[in-house]
Amino acid sequence: MKNIMRDNYLPKMLTNVLDQHHEPYCIKNSDSIYIYANNSLAKLIGVRTPKDFLYKSEFEFNSSLTENEDVVKEWQYQDRVVRESKKHL
After folding, report:
1. Domain count, the chain
2. Interacting residues of 27 by C-beta distance below 8 A, sequence separation 6+
3. Angle at 74 between CA 72 and CA 49, to 5 degrees
4. Is 84 exposed, middle or buried (0-12, 13-18, 19+ CB in 10 A)?
5. By residue range, what is the domain housing residue 78?
6. pLDDT band per the 50, 70, 90 thresholds, residue 3
7. Residues contacting residue 30 through CB under 8 Å, at least 6 positions apart
8. CA angle, 62 then 26 then 22, to 5°
9. What does the pLDDT look like over 14-72, one tens digit per residue?
10. Please, where are the H alpha helices in the chain?
């Protein structure tokens, strides 16, 4: 696995903007591990703060959003499609 801390270099300007949104936002690394989430997503997932699920995948925390294993597998599939497409943003 890659060094997650190194992968977590996100521009402060980006995280500041996403922190202000009421909509849930997250960013995952190339291993489908959460490296950023705002408070709205933490609330939706049912944890106190985003730090409660950072550096984890959907399979590593319990939430009503992750109860359906088929949904989680679909998210993982979507992550893989993005990763393997090798398209630059």
Report:
1. 1
2. 10, 34, 35, 36, 37
3. 40
4. exposed
5. 4-85
6. very low
7. 2, 7, 83
8. 100
9. 999 999 999 999 999 988 899 999 999 999 988 999 999 899 988 888 888 888 889 88
10. 4-7, 12-20, 39-45, 69-85
